[in-house]
């Protein structure tokens, strides 16, 4: 996952916790330890994608434009990073290999399906409440998931 995606999810969770109270870019950056200039670009993407509403002026700030339960993490990834999985800048179904590598694109499609299964099943509300879907919790509860390799 990119830093941009991580920052976007953390900023949106912070706005979800604010429960409709406007938060300035500075407040969000400080609360989540995100570089302010970077967060500005991320918030711009999130606003264009319809996840946040921006209010200008001295008392301005950002609020969620949709309910946290209506925003899944995959949507956020796509808004800030584009498609979930790219191979050489292309979607995996558009990549073709020949010879002994002819089935490699199937691996990339499987990877995308696995990412989609996790990211589409988790909403901002799930993250705020610490209530991940059972299938995601099962992955996390596997001790191997915590071992770096």
Overall pLDDT: 92
Q: Using DSSP, what is the number of strands?
A: 2
- Report the biggest beta sheet as strand number plus sense, adding barrel if it closes: 2 strands, antiparallel
> What is the chain-wise order of helices and strands?
HHHEEHHHH
User: What does the oligomeric state look like here?
Assistant: single chain
Radius of gyration: 18 Å
**Count of DSSP helices?**
7
**Could you say which overall geometry the principal axes of the C-alpha atoms support?**
globular
Strand order within the widest sheet?
Answer: 1-2
Q: Please state the structural category.
A: mainly alpha
Provide the helix percentage: 40-55%
Low-confidence stretches: none
- Our measurement of the CA-to-CA distance between the termini, rounded to an integer number of angstroms, reads 16 Å
Per DSSP, what share of the residues sits in E-state strands of 2 or more residues? 5-15%
Structure description:
This protein has 149 residues and is mainly alpha-helical. 52% of the residues lie in helices and 5% in strands. It contains 7 helices and 2 strands, in the order αααββαααα. A two-stranded antiparallel sheet has the order 1-2. Strand 1 and strand 2 form a beta hairpin. Helix 1 (3-18) packs across helix 2 (25-32), helix 2 packs across helix 3 and helix 4 crosses helix 5.
């Amino acid at each position: 996952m990119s830093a941009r995606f991580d920052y976007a999810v953390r900023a949106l969770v912070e706005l979800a916790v604010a429960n409709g109270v406007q938060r300035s870019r500075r407040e969000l950056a400080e609360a989540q330890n995100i570089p302010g200039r970077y967060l500005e670009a991320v918030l711009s993407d999130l606003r264009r994608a319809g996840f946040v509403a921006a209010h200008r002026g001295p008392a301005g700030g950002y609020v969620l434009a949709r309910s946290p339960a209506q925003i899944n993490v995959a949507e956020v990834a796509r808004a800030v990073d584009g498609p979930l999985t790219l191979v050489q800048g292309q979607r995996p179904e558009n990549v073709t290999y020949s010879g002994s590598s002819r089935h490699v694109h199937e691996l990339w499609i499987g990877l995308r399906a696995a990412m989609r299964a996790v990211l589409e099943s988790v909403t901002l509300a799930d993250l705020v409440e610490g209530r991940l879907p059972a299938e995601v919790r099962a992955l996390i509860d596997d001790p191997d998931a915590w071992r770096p390799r």
